[in-house]
């Protein structure tokens, strides 16, 4: 069994950012997981839901942002940027700045006395670490409403869809109003199926295209940010430490409600007139009948009714709940104090369990909605790297 200073669980943008900073400081560490898997497994035809400058992996060397990489490749650098190009960018960053990444997954993390943590890998190997950083992004956090429980193989969350070709000729219900749901409905249509989008709200909302060039005075009054143009967005992006000191109840409300479900502008031409949409509609029951799914629906102003489908796709987002991290031992999870269902963290991203750190979307209730995006790594990675380097020398 090996004893290491830092174990990083995850191999996406946050994990790679931290590993690059630790490497530049000479701080010993190991990184576990298939590089950029979440991004590389996305189906073709999917683009990033954020602007190019919002998705850069944070490494110590200048000139390595995603827009700069896109310019070198002759690709669009603002929007829409393809998921395929972003995955290629991430793989290049990994190979250059985190060359010793280990593709083995972490199966379990337990407390281990003076060693602090015992880590079991998917191949059965065991390592001991003084510090563990959970940086698995949205993996394992997919949320589906309880009403859909029991649909089994007839139900798929958008995060688990790597191809839509098997839906050809089928009648598919897509539930949700955000980018993932609307994108999925368009891709279902393009696969030769019949999509029906079920939306609780009064409309499905689309963003407008971000202008590539804005007058100087507008850029001052309404600065561009990861969260969109605006001074409040700029404050949330630039001062995550200030957000941390907002009273907890208000902080949770702000983080959860800041960005309502919307779809990107570039999917609209592939959606309008091609997808059947039911607005103000809620699923009240779901069951399988003769190899199909019968959904009980409630539409405002209409008596309850049922519709049958061959499959249901849940574009219902993610639950930022630390209990969904199955690789953390149940006893270890119980020791993690919470903000809502997310871990309560120190200013250096350390949980109530000494030596256990969290990066990525699970930190948004502590530091603000910018941490739902890759851009949060710009603040988190150097902060955690500095903390871990200091602990090494103390």
Structure report:
The protein is α/β, with parallel strands linked by helices and 394 residues long. It has two domains: 2-141 and 320-393, FAD/NAD(P)-binding domain; 146-206 and 262-314, 3-Layer(bba) Sandwich (FAD/NAD(P)-binding domain). Helices cover 27% and strands 20% of the residues. The chain has helices at residues 13-25, 37-40, 66-73, 83-97, 179-190, 216-221, 231-238, 240-244, 248-257, 330-334, 364-367, 377-393; strands spanning 2-9, 30-32, 106-111, 117-121, 126-134, 155-157, 171-175, 194-198, 276-278, 281-289, 292-299, 305-309, 311-314, 338-339, 342-343, 356-358. Strands 1, 2, 3, 4, 5 and 16 form a six-stranded mixed sheet that branches. A five-stranded parallel sheet has the order 6-13-7-8-9, covered by helices on one side. The chain is globular and about 65 Å long. The two termini are 24 Å apart. The mean pLDDT is 93.
Describe what is shown at a glance.
The protein has 394 residues and is of the alpha/beta class.
Which helices and strands occur, and which strands form pairs?
Blueprint: E1 2-9, H1 13-25, E2 30-32, H2 37-40, H3 66-73, H4 83-97, E3 106-111, E4 117-121, E5 126-134, E6 155-157, E7 171-175, H5 179-190, E8 194-198, H6 216-221, H7 231-238, H8 240-244, H9 248-257, E9 276-278, E10 281-289, E11 292-299, E12 305-309, E13 311-314, H10 330-334, E14 338-339, E15 342-343, E16 356-358, H11 364-367, H12 377-393
Parallel strand pairs: 1-2, 1-5, 5-16, 6-13, 7-8, 7-13, 8-9
Antiparallel strand pairs: 3-4, 4-5, 10-11, 11-12, 14-15
Helix pairs in contact: 1-4, 1-12
């Amino acid at each position: 069994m090996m004893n290491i200073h830092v174990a990083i669980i995850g191999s996406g943008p946050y994990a790679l950012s931290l590993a690059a900073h630790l490497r530049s400081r000479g701080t010993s560490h190991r990184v576990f997981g298939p590089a950029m898997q979440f991004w590389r497994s996305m189906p073709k035809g999917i683009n990033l839901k954020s602007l190019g400058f919002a998705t850069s992996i944070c490494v110590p060397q200048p000139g390595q942002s995603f827009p700069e990489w896109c310019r070198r490749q002759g690709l669009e650098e603002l929007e829409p940027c393809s998921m395929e190009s972003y995955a290629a960018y991430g793989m290049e960053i990994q190979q250059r700045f985190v060359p010793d990444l280990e593709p083995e997954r972490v199966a379990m993390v337990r407390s281990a006395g003076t060693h602090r943590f015992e880590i079991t890998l998917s191949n059965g190997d065991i390592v001991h670490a003084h510090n563990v950083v959970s940086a698995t992004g949205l993996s394992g956090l997919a949320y589906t409403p309880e009403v859909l429980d029991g649909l089994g193989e007839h139900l798929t969350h958008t995060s688990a869809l790597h191809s839509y070709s098997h839906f050809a000729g089928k009648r598919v219900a897509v539930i949700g109003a955000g980018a993932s749901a609307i994108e999925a409905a368009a891709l279902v249509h393009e696969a030769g199926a019949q999509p029906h989008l079920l939306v609780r709200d009064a409309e499905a909302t689309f963003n407008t295209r971000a202008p590539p060039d804005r007058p100087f005075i507008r850029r001052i009054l309404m600065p561009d940010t990861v969260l969109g143009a605006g001074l409040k967005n700029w404050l949330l992006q630039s001062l995550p430490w200030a957000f941390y000191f907002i009273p907890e109840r208000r902080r949770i409300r702000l983080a959860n409600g800041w960005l309502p479900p919307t779809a990107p502008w570039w999917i609209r031409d592939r959606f309008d007139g091609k997808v059947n949409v039911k607005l103000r509609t809620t699923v009240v029951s779901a069951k399988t009948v003769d190899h199909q799914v019968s959904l009980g629906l409630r539409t405002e102003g209409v008596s309850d009714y049922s519709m049958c489908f061959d499959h249901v796709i849940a574009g219902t987002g993610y639950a930022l709940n630390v209990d969904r991290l199955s690789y953390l031992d149940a006893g270890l999870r119980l020791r993690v104090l919470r903000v809502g269902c997310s871990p309560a963290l120190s200013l250096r991203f350390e949980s109530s369990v000494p030596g256990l750190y969290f990066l990525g979307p699970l930190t948004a209730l502590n530091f603000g909605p910018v941490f739902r995006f890759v851009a949060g790594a710009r603040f988190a990675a150097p902060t955690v790297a500095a903390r871990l380097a200091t602990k090494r020398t103390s």
